């Protein structure tokens, strides 16, 4: 079954999340469109400061002043979450929509044992016995590769390594079998072996249960082996999106091409990696037109006007006047 036949779990249209500061308005997310179907993994890729994490926080309703959603729609199973009451968002968080943070201590309480936190996470949304909740918690720890899960349930967060804490945080996100998981660079601090194990478990989870996932990362190499589709983000906007194979093998936006060329491969062993010149612009002082223009080798006068999304021959959607594919 292709993605068009699967249930549409999340649809984001024209999302604008702005931060109103003394220095001006920071347009952290500026007109983002994306969608995720049941059982699908969408990779949201870009450099630090591109707006990836703020997009995730916006979807789950974790934007606080001076930030707010200034426009657009976030439809979860058809229900628009923009402007939804906090009570409704609390019902969805953890049960229907879960988030895995980059820092596990944003999830874990340092003064409570792991079992207490995991059982409470289940009881917050379901009426089950303590024994059943505990058994599910132990099963979730085993799923993310934690050895001796029964013993780890009795530990406090400070007694675990950083990698172990992150795996506990991932296990908590899986506890209530959510329909949508937003993962904000959750494997960055883990060693390669554990990272590969968790990526395998995540893929398996999505395929077997129909869970939809947005995997936020700066690492295009990781997400190309995990995701079904990729959305590349730069300066608050999606500049290219499409199926993994199309985007990786036929990058249409110069920024996407730069990200791919900066990944070490066997073919580039011993040679200097190609780098994208310059730095990500300040969101307070974005250049006129295409935000990537000052760093782009294909820039022309036309790029002083913001390009609109367009389809390429390889089925990607790209925002560029000089698409490469």
Record keyword descriptors for this entry:
325 residues; alpha/beta; Rossmann fold; 8-stranded mixed beta sheet; 4-stranded antiparallel beta sheet; 29% helix
The helix fraction, in percent, is 25-40%
Q: Main β-sheet: number of strands, strand sense, barrel status?
A: 8 strands, mixed
User: What is the straight-line distance between the termini?
Assistant: 27 Å
CATH superfamily of the domain at 3-41 and 49-85 and 222-318: P-loop containing nucleotide triphosphate hydrolases
| Element-level helix/strand string | EEEHEEHEHHHHEHEHEEHHEE
| Cα-atom radius of gyration | 20 Å
| CATH class type of the domain at 3-41 and 49-85 and 222-318 | Alpha Beta
Question: What does this entry look like structurally?
Answer:
The protein has 325 residues and is an alpha/beta fold. It is 29% helix and 24% strand. It has 10 helices and 12 strands. The strands form 2 sheets. Strands 6-7-8-3-9-10-12-11 form an 8-stranded mixed β-sheet, with helices on both faces. A 4-stranded antiparallel β-sheet has the order 2-1-4-5, with helices on one face. Helix 3 crosses helix 4 (130-143) and helix 4 crosses helix 6 (162-174).
